[in-house]
């Protein structure tokens, strides 16, 4: 059955959730990044530490993802990967003030790729505080049915240093298992590709533990931490693995900056365009 046939009657209704926006997750994330706790409002996209979903243990699939979910498309043997997203900041979120998030299904597209059919799903989140809309975020997630057996031959890992680059802003980092484990805990992410090495090699076919795509985005945004951000558009292109040397790079422009993540293997694992207020 074509994937589109599984989606013909799938029309999930919007969902509203609330969060008290307590300061604990921000303090924990700051410790994970070896950075001081930010003063003032929440840094852009740090709301990923909030509005978390903790399903019952028996509701998890073999891969660690929930077997069912409100915005998970009903396709067989579902495999999930975050592809990218966009954020518009009207006002930054404040800690200690209850926030409301309204989530709704956006565009759903079935595409034929070189490895078979894929479903692209966009979910929009609108986050408000004090009766005012603060953030609008679109998350793009791609799904496929079953594994891509060719992946084992396509993916490699390298412990070589990332090549030199000319960008004005640069940070270097080598993510290890401790970083991946702590970020998984902070974001309620039980996907086994981030912490279970036998599983990630033998079942999913990766050469090592996979660094979270959202973590790569937050690391890129460390390059612009001191600047007022009004928009972020990011793409996750190729996976990064634990133990690889990352170079986080940024080139400032007139009203924003272009950011990227490079290793010895690839010069653009992830990219982001940031607009400044």
From TrEMBL:
InterPro entries: HotDog_dom_sf (IPR029069), Mitochondrial_HTD2 (IPR052741). It comes from the Bacteria. This is 3-methylfumaryl-CoA hydratase.
């Amino acid at each position: 059955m074509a994937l589109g046939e599984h989606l013909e009657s799938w029309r999930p209704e919007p969902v509203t959730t609330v969060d008290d926006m307590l300061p604990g997750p921000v303090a924990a994330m700051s410790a994970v990044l070896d950075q001081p706790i930010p003063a003032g409002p929440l840094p852009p996209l740090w709301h990923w530490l909030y509005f978390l979903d903790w399903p019952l243990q028996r509701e998890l699939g073999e891969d660690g993802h929930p077997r069912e979910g409100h915005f998970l498309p009903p396709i067989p043997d579902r495999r999930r990967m975050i592809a990218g997203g966009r954020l518009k900041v009207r006002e930054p979120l404040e800690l200690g003030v209850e926030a409301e998030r309204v989530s709704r299904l956006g565009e759903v597209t079935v595409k034929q790729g070189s490895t078979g059919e894929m479903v692209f799903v966009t979910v929009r989140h609108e986050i408000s505080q004090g009766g005012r809309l603060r953030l609008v975020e679109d998350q793009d997630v791609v799904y496929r049915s079953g594994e891509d057996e060719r992946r084992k031959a396509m993916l490699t890992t390298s412990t070589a240093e990332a090549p030199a680059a000319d960008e004005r802003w640069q940070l270097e980092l080598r993510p290890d298992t401790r970083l991946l484990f702590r970020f998984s805990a902070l974001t309620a992410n039980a996907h086994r590709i981030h912490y279970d090495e036998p599983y990630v090699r033998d079942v999913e076919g990766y050469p090592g533990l996979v660094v979270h795509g959202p973590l790569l985005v937050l690391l890129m945004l460390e390059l612009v931490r001191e600047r007022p951000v009004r928009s972020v558009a990011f793409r996750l292109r190729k996976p990064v693995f634990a133990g690889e040397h990352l170079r986080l790079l940024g080139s400032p422009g007139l009203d924003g900056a272009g950011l990227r993540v490079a290793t010895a293997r690839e010069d653009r694992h992830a990219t982001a365009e940031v607009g400044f207020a």
